[in-house]
Amino acid sequence: MKSITIKGQERESVGKKATKALRDAGMIPCVIYGGDQPVHFAAEEKAFKGLVYTPNAHTVVVDLNGKTNNVILQDIQFHPVSDKILHIDFFQLNDNKEIIMEVPVKITGTSPGVLLGGDLRLNQRRLKVKALPKNLPDYVEANISELQMGNKLYVTKLETNNFKLMHPDNTVVCQVKISRAAMKAAQEAAKAAKAPAKGKKK
Length: 202
Hints:
Layout lengths: L2 E8 L5 H9 L2 E7 L5 E6 L4 H4 L6 E6 L2 E12 L6 E8 L6 E10 L3 H4 L3 E4 L3 E6 L8 E4 L8 E3 L9 E2 L6 E6 L2 H15 L8
Parallel strand pairs: 1-4, 2-6, 7-10
Antiparallel strand pairs: 1-3, 2-3, 4-5, 5-6, 7-9, 8-13, 9-12, 11-13
Protein name: Large ribosomal subunit protein bL25
Function: This is one of the proteins that binds to the 5S RNA in the ribosome where it forms part of the central protuberance.
Family: Belongs to the bacterial ribosomal protein bL25 family. CTC subfamily.
C-alpha cells in the first residue's frame, strides 16, 4: 500500500485552551494510539489534504522531528457546521500484527449485461480487509467480465492475495440491474411475440 508522510511536532499541553490555540493557528491536534503510550502531536491542516480528501487508502508515516511512526488513520472528527477537521486519531502499525483497514473497490473488465443496456450498480465502494501492514492492498479488484443482466458479484468471488475480506459471504459488491430502457424493450418484444399474426385477405 502506498504511504504518505506527515510532518508534525509533539505537544505536551493537551487542554482545551491549548487545543483551541492550535486550531486558531491552522494546526490539527492528533493522537497516535497502539504504542506503549499515546503520542500527542499537531500538524498543519494542509498536510492532511492528501490523506483525508481522497478516495484512495494510504498508510501514514508521521515524522516528529526525525522520529518516524508508521500508522493508519483510525478516526477523524469534523466540525458539524464548517466541516473543518477538528481532531484525528491514528493507530500505530506493528509489522507482525494484522490490521483491519478499509480500501476502495476497483472495477475491472467489461460486463456483457452492461453491453446489453444494463446499469452497473456499485453496492460497496470500500471494503474492510485484514492483513499484515506489508500486505495491505491499495484496492480490492472486482472483475465484472462475467456479469450478465440481473447478476450480482459477491465478495466470495473476489481475489484475495495475502489478505482477508471482513464481510459476510452474502455481501454484494456490485450488480447489473435491468435498465428502464432495456425493460421496456423486453416488454415490447414480449407483446410482439404474443400478438397473433395477421392472415392474408382472400
